[in-house]
Amino acid sequence: MKMKSISLVNLMACNLSASRGMVQSNERHFMNIPATAPIPALTRNGLAVLRALRGSGPLTLGELAERIDVSRPTAGVGVGELEEIGWVLSDRASQGMGRPARRHALNAPAAAVVGVDLGLHSIRVVLHDLNEGLLADHRVANHEGIGAAEQLDLLVSVISEAAARAGSPPLLAIGVGLPGVVDRSGRIVIGPSQAGWGGLPLKGRLAAVFDCPILIENDAMAAASAEHQWGAGRGADSFVYLLGGHRTSSAIVINGRLLRGTNGAAGMVGELPELQWDGSARQLLNDAEAQGDDLLSVFVRAQGGDAIASAAVDSYLDRLSVGLAAVALAIDPELVVLGGGISRVGAQIGPALQERLHARAHIIAPRIETSPLGAEATVRGAAHLAFTAVDGELDTRMRAI
Hints:
The chain is α+β, with helices and mostly antiparallel strands. The protein contains eleven helices and 19 strands.
């Protein structure tokens, strides 16, 4: 897209390393990378109008001026900047007698953030517009055991396809949630052994393709941030997020903030082999004499009165409760959120798990609630991390002007 030569806001546009077509990264070639248009820098007025219109319906110039506490002409300058780059649409709406008032609305699909749930068995990518509305949702199977270069190829391909389905809007930031310990540089310090991700500098690899902020986070931590924003943890000062399913992990929100720790491993008590979280799902399947890897079928059998499945579920909850009691006693949370695959059976296992938790951590009694986000939590949390990066830069620019 041809644009005027003007100064750019580095964070606010995810400019790709080349135009539509082929982009080279680490000597590998990715086809069909969507081209993005650079977004011009905004003045304080433009930024203020942008913040006022996000999440709002159409507003008149007078309403905007009142919201951002400036004169109508000053608000008009900000509106003009956003109209010029296509981020604001304006029209006239009749309000009775006289000339119709001109109303201004955010052109939400004009730009987007990306959220990625990079799992062992699938990759899911969502694009959200400037008002956090869903533009695209694309999922493909992941291939266990492929090399790091092939994994990057596949990830870039899925992001590109999702962006194309959304109309290829400029990407402001990309957030990725994945199983493993991620350091502050975006390197996967410890990843699932079967994936071969350990030591992969994923942030750097993606940054070589997408010239925008890249946020890499542990999947349970990303899910916990989503729960705090939209889910069971909304309004909670402190809680533990328990990700249960084919793997078990946990994350902590305390004083309203996600706790990462020095090395990005806060809350990962499941790394202690004595707690038996690692492999607990496989043990559940073995104990229940299940055919295949369908965990939910074991809970269905148990609920139906199957004695073998019921005993397997009891043992599974015993194992969960040990680690959960350890992390709960460390921070004394008001809440435990059941997320991941086990959220689908939260009503079934929640009371029994709470009873075991209270028996082990008897001096505290956090309540247990099931995640309303379920399997959506990680990908929504990844998108939230991307939005947070954009909002943080907007706040920084507002203070600097």
